[in-house]
Amino acid sequence: MTKKLNGLGRRVLTFPAVHPCESISPSTLLISLIDLAHDICTYKSEFFSTNKRNALKAVRQVHNLLIFLEELRVESADIPGSLVISLSELHLTFQRIRYLLEDCTREGARLWMLTKSDRVSNQLRLFIRAIGTALDVLPLAAIDVSSEVKELVDLVMRQARKAIFETDPDDKRVLNDVIRILGRFEDGIRPDKSEVKRVLDYLGITKWSQCNQEVKFLDSEITIEYLNVDKRSELALLSSLMGFLSYCKCIMFDLVDNEASQQVSKKCCNNMLGGLTPDDFTCPISLEIMKDPVTLSTGHTYDRASILKWFRAGNSTCPKTGERLQSKELLVNLVLKRIIQDWSVDNGVSIAEESGHKNRDITRTVLAGSLAAEGAMKLLANFISDRLLEGTSEEKNKVAYEVRLLTKSSIFNRSCLVEVGCIPSLLKLLSSKDSSTQENAIAALLNLSKHCKSKSMVVESGGLDFIVDMVKKGLKVEARQHAAATLFYIASIEEYRKLIGENPEAIPALVDMVRDGTDRSKKNALVAIFGLLMHSGNHWRVLAAGAVPLLLNLLTSSDREELITDSLAVLATLAEKLDGTIAILHHGALDMIMKILDSCTSRAGTEYCVSLLLALCINGGANVVALLVKSPSLMGSLYSLLSQGSSRASKKASALIRILHEFYERHSSGSTTPVLPQDRSVHVW
Predict the structure, then answer these.
(1) How much is the average pLDDT of 433-460?
(2) Is the dihedral of CA 341, 343, 345, 347 positive or negative?
(3) What CA–CA distance (Å, rounded) separates 398 from 437?
(4) Is the CA virtual torsion 672, 675, 676, 681 positive or negative?
(5) Which keywords appear in this protein's UniProt record, sorted alphabetically (predicted)?
(6) What's the whole-model pTM score?
């Protein structure tokens, strides 16, 4: 009942405490309360970057009550009802105190908690006074404990009634320093490094990894705040703080120390995922794996669609506990969502397309979020540009890594770094003999290539040859797969699709990656090839590189649905031309494609299957149609697409059904008029 939480499945400064149920036995309630008090007392030795005095004052009060609770006995049958009420109210308040102490000591939330010092002080005051209120109904005279303990309880009661929790003066001073630094960012002025260092030292942020953890926390808070359309009151402050810490991370720390911690984190994550089963991820309402887990004020988590349906049915209680909800606010459980996605990938479980597998919507990042965030990023972009030009090899690698992180999910950051001219410098780093530098540079270029102006800058700087060479000879697998993905984004421009195709090594290198690469590499290569096929002149190049047998092999050998779907997409595009149809039919692929259509669970995969069969019929002629007509299950699959598929899939299915019907009718009537022109008929192996 009092299992200690890590706080990560709950938004900071929310307190989803659950009132003990009325039927709980007094002994069970007391044991749980003692456990809670012990948990709270362990925070005495924790590091508090802010709110330390007030937090420890609250811990001392709980410790004093723990002495009383451990001496209390509730085995007798005539326990006063007021005692149970008092213990229940203490249990509720202790839960809230523990949540608040978790927040005060939470790694990654130190700067945010500094800005909330006044609120934390007020919350602690309210919680301690709630302890006093709970003790008011305690029948102390009727309880068999020592007189010393009774005096201690009386002391706690008196102190709780007049409890004063003021914000720590040191917290106020450092918060004013932060506000002054943000003001300098707004004015486009670099803050004094010594002043920035004082803030970081006070918060205990002494390493790059700690600063990066703060940035990640703020980013997740911004995401949650942005989803809350009705409130969004904290967006500007969160954005400013994130800009400040991003600036600090790049400028104040020379060493990136996250590699060891990442390995430990990955090991812990793998151990955790290894002990989980699908039951751990199922919604208590739908009993299906959650796609968008959200948490109620009771602390219980449900799939968003299911709990909203529950509310729309007129219910205002928690489905699991039956407790009436004071608020129907839904908190996005980002940690659980990520765990479900990681588990799904590791176990080959497909989550529906409308779930979290969609790319994160980053359109909100077109703007910086605040003037301070904008100023910080512009100053940082100039610093990075200078380091890429004039820094040592180690410094260039470090800032390339920073660019990689800054541009991963921020359109504004991409714009700033493109504008200051980072792309030519990053392209030069692709020639580095250091594998880490190479990987960071190409990953940064991949993110920047998503910006509208960057593609022309890459091409005009002679970057295509560098990137193609990286696909072939990158020192690390990750660098090669990033290079393939970069080609995909550059190929979104018709003129550049042609230029890439004209490089004699580009398409063969991508096809080699489909054959020999990791699953991620195969996917990146497939989408790059698909993009290049939008230029008709690249069609024969893909065929000449031997893509067809590799793609058909993937259809049978891969257990990854996304690779099968991407392979079908490329094959469907190749089949639109006669030489592509000939190559596909030459390898006896017709039966295989029909089997995939019967078994495919992906809507996109099913659509590409139908597109591929339609193209094979049109270009392959009567021989292909004759074989398709004999399939007993094909018509059923096609008719289901008419009602359940997308509009595009329905049109393709309708066209294929019409061809099959016309062939069947002509064959039944003995007509010799071909359904399709005879000169388009291809022998089927």
Answers:
(1) 94
(2) negative
(3) 8
(4) negative
(5) Repeat, Transferase, Ubl conjugation pathway
(6) 0.80
